[in-house]
Amino acid sequence: MCGIAGVITAGGETASPEVLSGMIRMIRHRGPDESGVHVEPGVGLGHARLSIIDLAGGRQPMHNEDSSLWIAFNGEIFNYLELREDLIKKGHVFATNSDTEVILHLYEEKGADCVTYLNGQWAFAIWDRNRRRLFLSRDRLGVRPLFYTWAGKNLVFGSEIKALFVYPGVTRDLDLNGLDEIFTYWCCVPPRTAFRGILELPPGNSMIVEAGKATVRPYWDLEYEDDRGAVNAVKETEYAEQLLDLLIDATRIRLRADVPVGAYLSGGLDSTLTTALIRRFTNNRLRSFSVSFEDAEFDESPYQREAVRFLDTDHQEVRCTAAQIGALLPEVVWHTEKPILRTAPAPLYLLSKLVRDSGYKVVITGEGSDEILGGYDIFKEAKIRRFWRAQPDSRIRPLLLRRLYPYLEKIRDQPDAYRKAFFHVQVDPALEAFFSHVPRWQLTAKLKSFFSDSVHAELGADTSYAAISAALPQRYASWRSFCQAQYLETKYLLPGYILSSQGDRVAMAHGVEGRFPFLDYRVVEFASKLPVSLKMKVLDEKYLLRRCARNLVPTSVQARHKQPYRAPEGSSLLHAAAGGYVEDLLSPARIRRDGIFDAQSVEKLLAKFRRGAAIGVKDNMSLVGIVSTQLLLHQYIHHFDCKGIAYAA
Amino acid sequence: MPLNEELRQFVTDNFLFGRNSAGLADHDSFLDKGIIDSTGVLELVAFLEQRYGIHMQDHDLLPENLDSIDNLARFVGSKLPRN
Fold first, then answer.
1. Which end of chain A is more exposed for a tag (fewer CB within 10 A), N or C?
2. Is A320 a catalytic residue?
3. Is residue A614 part of a domain?
4. pLDDT at A498 over 90
5. Domain with residues B3-79, CATH architecture
């Protein structure tokens, strides 16, 4: 796992090695083991390496036999051994044992189609000297990041935005439309980012840059063709066996590394199962890692301990306090490079530090399962809302809502009349395509009331979710509502928040690579064809996966209700031990100078927190969103330091 | 401060954070206007109990009592001791 950066110059001039080195220096945390730069007329490639496969031979940028192809690669190709064997049979000669070289030879063989043969997580750039062409690609689900922008006629790219900002002529401004999207969906709709003019190569896409033009093309997308036939016991057993076989193989190939592989163990079904599957393939002691909280509302350590006993791992945990979360947020935002509405990335940042300090740089984790196998409460909530909508006057149907969110005490205590209103049993017919997500998006969009008048004036009012509407595939309308909800989660929140702000960015901040068996494309494609009833049977989430997990995970972990990973929120930022930066960033003078938020509203929000009256989700998301936006302005717009990390307020 | 004004001040400060207060009529529904979020009603109840010494029963927690400044004023007025 690594970081990449580079430029393709329209006039064919040679890129500056100093500038490329400066770009790589900004993302050195992604690859602290080695770094390298290659420049030639028309192109410059840079690489920061985290050595995991072929420690001695995998140096980058790497070239093929005649140096006509050069690659800078961030990621892992898990099926590289099989691909290598095929390529050798076809006459390719390898100089190293790395997966990087496999991509090069596969590109020689298949051209841009090479990515369809890869099973892995990647962002890479190949310079094709003979064709004067740069080929950029990003993995199917967006595990690894890749950003680009134009500096005049030169295309500049990199694993992180901060590397792009080092390149001369790349401007640094917030993109208000990007901010608007984050304050609605929690993430930007690709290719937009939080910075004006900086674009993200969307997951499942490749880009060819030649003759000064860039062409982005999808090579893979989610497709739901759920089996709508009757599911009898025999068929259900077949599906369970197939899913388990796929997960076993997805885990097996993710253990390929020349360094030891550890495991995140959250105490939930997904990571407990992936850890159990790792145990099948190794006789060595397995190291597992988790985060726990001093506040019992968020803590899952009893389940973690049970899983550790059951799976017999060597376990280490980091106990996270509210004060730590507050103190760490500036560093976290430096890495997320976008505003965040929840503090949840901060404890994961601490966790990756624990992994790194323990001498590990690769962990297997359970992300992706909730999206592809139907684990999130938003799926359950939509199902109940639809059931209720069929008989809106029913007194019994809304009672099902009490089964939702048993871990959120404050919602459970709400009077029924209010719960009904909040859960939007009826939605505007024009928004029917987003039935599942309207309550979340409408709640989040309320945070925009904190925007200043000038920001409101520039953005205008859009309540139609135009950005996502425009990006929906035609076939979306033909999918079942459950699959539509899955698509929205998997296409947007997964890469835009879960795999980035809670994934790649906070793990790679400490040079730790996550690997995700549930996001093996074979597992994803299999899950998208499953009967919906096997994902959520009545209201039992991840039904088929639970069946697979029988005998593999502790009974208590199997039976527990899905608890989304959450962390102490807004008040942690105002903790006395957090450093006091919030007071500075949110002072009326500062807010007015920066111009994004309304100073009086922010002052009233702070006052509400100070008197302990801010208990709602909206207030907490507002404070975290405002503070992280102000941090982003401070770190990236006003005080950006090309020489290294500058995040102190 | 008259009861209506005091209630308006609380709603404006706590749920609108000082914004759009001019656009909020006394009869406007907090739910329809999206003013109160999923837990806002709990904040409202805590305020009424603390400020006016009212003990709220489960059957009091209805939009008819809590969903506009007019409804709140009527409800609070009915609970306050009469001189």
1. C
2. no
3. yes
4. yes
5. Orthogonal Bundle (1.10)
